[in-house]
Specification:
The chain is mostly helical and 297 residues long. The protein contains 14 helices and 3 strands.
């Protein structure tokens, strides 16, 4: 790639990054008010997590109102206001908020940039030239949906995709690693990144597993011997990957148990009556285990 093209791309990258941060941060610096109820709820609970360590807000008036008082994008469990959604992004933003509220306001732009960088590394690993990889990144960066959800800092779309791209990038590093210990640690990190992506959007597991299943079926059909040899040689890596996924999965189940009272309960299915006007969660409500299991669908 010529020096002129590098200068042009670097200039575009600076302008692009400036647009992301300049549009995302002001929403969070005006008393934490956001256009979207989902973002505002995430910001409020992130601040609560930074202060107390748990995504719950006490509301004493709910004692007499039987838990019917809760803003949009929240629900009540035993008179306590909790998030009406998945906890992955909420706790991620809470960790950022603990470091700095400004950092929490930059979740979308930060993951946007990390995702684009990971995409560049993946494309380069696949054998593309620097120029082709750079223009591939540009194509994603200027996609309206990617740019829009990057400035909607506390929406889950971009962090979810960026973590999947990060999973792919670290996988390329692990495949090139020669040291056994570092390779195992990298595969644990890969599993943790993949698990983090699913923690943010558990409902996406259907198409992700579908793609993985289709890929495995293709390898079995076209490269059966190569697949068998790879699986036999990389048992440790597979175990480390599953350990990383299980680590994040266990953390999510623990958080859901702490916030909602059950590891298989999310804010979406804590009780269906919560979505009705004036609806609340009865203390005596018992949700069948299979409904909780399908909460992530």
């Amino acid at each position: 790639m010529s020096l002129l093209k590098k200068i042009v791309l670097a200039t575009l990258a600076l302008v692009y990054g400036a647009s992301l941060f300049s549009l995302a941060i002001p929403f969070a610096t005006r008393d934490g008010l956001f256009v979207s109820p989902d973002e505002h709820a995430t910001w409020t609970f992130a601040r609560r997590i930074a202060e107390t360590g748990i995504a719950q807000i006490e509301e004493t008036r709910n004692i007499s109102l039987d838990g019917s008082l809760h803003p949009r994008s929240t629900v009540t469990v035993n008179d306590v206001i909790v998030p009406a959604g998945f906890l992955g992004l909420t706790y991620l933003a809470g960790v950022f908020f603990f470091v700095s509220p400004l950092l929490a306001a930059c979740v979308g732009p930060l993951f946007c940039i990390l995702g684009l960088f990971a995409l560049y590394k993946i494309v380069r690993f696949l054998g593309a030239s620097q120029e082709f990889a750079a223009w591939t990144v540009v194509a994603l960066a200027i996609h309206p949906a990617w740019w829009y959800y990057s400035i909607r800092s506390l929406m889950p779309n971009v962090p979810f995709v960026a973590l999947l791209l990060g999973t792919g990038w670290v996988t390329t590093i692990a495949l090139k690693s020669k040291q056994t210990v570092s390779r195992c640690l990298l595969w644990i990190l890969i599993g943790s990144l993949f698990g983090s992506a699913l923690a943010i959007r558990p409902s996406e597991w259907v198409w992700i597993l579908g793609c993985l299943f289709a890929g495995v079926c293709y390898l079995i059909q076209a490269h059966k011997n190569v697949l068998r040899e790879t699986l036999s040689k990389r048992k440790k890596e597979i175990a480390c990957f599953l350990f990383g996924v299980g680590l994040m999965g266990g953390l999510v189940l623990a958080l859901q148990s702490s916030v909602y009272g059950s590891p298989l309960t999310t804010g979406y299915t804590v009780d269906q009556s919560v979505w009705e006007v004036g609806g609340s969660i009865s203390r005596d409500t018992v949700v069948p285990w299979y409904e909780k299991l399908f909460a992530i669908m």
